[in-house]
Design goal:
This protein is globular. The protein is mostly helical and 86 residues long.
């Protein structure tokens, strides 16, 4: 998360993960929400930069990017986990 410190990245990650959890109707828990939010932000920032879109800085925009990234990660997890046969 560009432009925010580590503590704020953890807080934004938790918020973004929780919002993504509500949107995707999943039950992850606090630690997983934080991880999903932070990793989601990193992944989505990388994807946006790869296609030439640089989101504006600031906490709100980074939270939006993190939510979108976390939703993407939840979707991909469900896609992969759904293919498993036990």
């Amino acid at each position: 998360m560009e432009g925010v410190g580590w503590l704020m990245a953890i807080i934004l990650g938790a918020i973004a993960g929780w919002i993504a959890e509500q949107i995707m109707k999943s039950d992850m828990g606090l630690l997983m929400n934080i991880i999903l939010g932070i990793v989601g932000a990193l992944v989505m920032n990388a994807i946006l930069k790869a296609v030439g879109v640089i989101p504006p800085g600031g906490w709100i925009w980074q939270c939006i990017v993190a939510v979108a990234g976390a939703c993407l990660l939840i979707f991909l997890w469900r896609l992969i986990a759904g293919r498993r046969t036990v």
